[in-house]
């Protein structure tokens, strides 16, 4: 069989082992891994090199507005080009819903920007900051059915945090629809209490952010 591409003589690294073999690629898919494959329409000699799957970066902030309205430095082109140069072939950035925004509009906006600029594969984690009956019953199931498989919720930060009732609603809906929930779990009132006292003492430098977010707030 004449493959579109044959990668020869490399040291292949899988999830469980390393071994020397050739890789045959056809139609953009790996279809054979074994020594001595027939020449392809294009050959790459990987002698002396490691050949491994592309990385998946599952925690990325690309072209995302923060809760304070600040845009990330990377857009979907610069961020995914940088990832590709580092051997990462899939990124899963956050799609952030801010209060007053419909989930469907948020997902559509991030998908449009990624579709126009990204040079590698991508998916999205969906940040939820506002929980409504419509979101739980319609928008969230629709987003999950469309390929959003993970959600992020916050227990702190005034513009993002959900109360316990809302967290349970999201977890129930995610469980029903088959999505994973990631929780930024910190005690909001403890952080606010420490931060108020730091500010009263004039401690406003960035390093005091870590002091305000004491490890005890996560326990």
From TrEMBL:
Top-level lineage group: Bacteria
Ranges where the Amidohydrolase-related domain occurs: 50-191
Cofactor(s) required for function per UniProt: Zn(2+)
Species lineage: Bacteria, Pseudomonadati, Pseudomonadota, Betaproteobacteria, Burkholderiales
Family label: Belongs to the metallo-dependent hydrolases superfamily. Hydantoinase/dihydropyrimidinase family.
A molecular-function term among this protein's GO annotations: hydrolase activity, acting on carbon-nitrogen (but not peptide) bonds, in cyclic amides
Gene Ontology cellular component list: cytosol
Protein name: D-hydantoinase
């Amino acid at each position: 069989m004449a493959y579109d591409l044959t990668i020869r003589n490399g040291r292949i690294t899988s999830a469980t082992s390393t071994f020397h073999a050739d890789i045959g690629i056809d139609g953009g898919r790996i279809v054979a891994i074994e020594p001595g494959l027939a020449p392809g329409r294009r050959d790459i000699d990987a002698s002396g090199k490691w050949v491994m799957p592309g990385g998946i970066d599952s925690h990325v902030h690309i072209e995302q507005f923060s809760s304070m309205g600040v845009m990330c430095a990377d857009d979907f082109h610069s961020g995914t080009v940088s990832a590709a140069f580092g051997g990462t072939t899939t990124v899963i950035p956050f799609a952030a819903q801010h209060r007053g925004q419909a989930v469907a509009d948020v997902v559509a906006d991030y998908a449009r920007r990624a579709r126009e600029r990204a040079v590698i594969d991508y998916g999205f984690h969906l940040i939820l900051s506002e929980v409504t009956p419509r979101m739980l019953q319609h928008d969230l199931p629709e987003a999950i059915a469309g390929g959003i498989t993970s959600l992020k919720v916050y227990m702190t930060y005034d513009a993002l945090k959900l109360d316990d009732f809302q967290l349970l609603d999201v977890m129930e809906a995610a469980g029903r629809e088959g999505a994973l929930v990631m929780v930024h779990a910190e005690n909001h009132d403890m952080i606010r209490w420490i931060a108020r006292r730091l500010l009263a003492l004039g401690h406003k430098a960035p390093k005091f952010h870590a002091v305000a977010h004491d490890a005890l707030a996560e326990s």
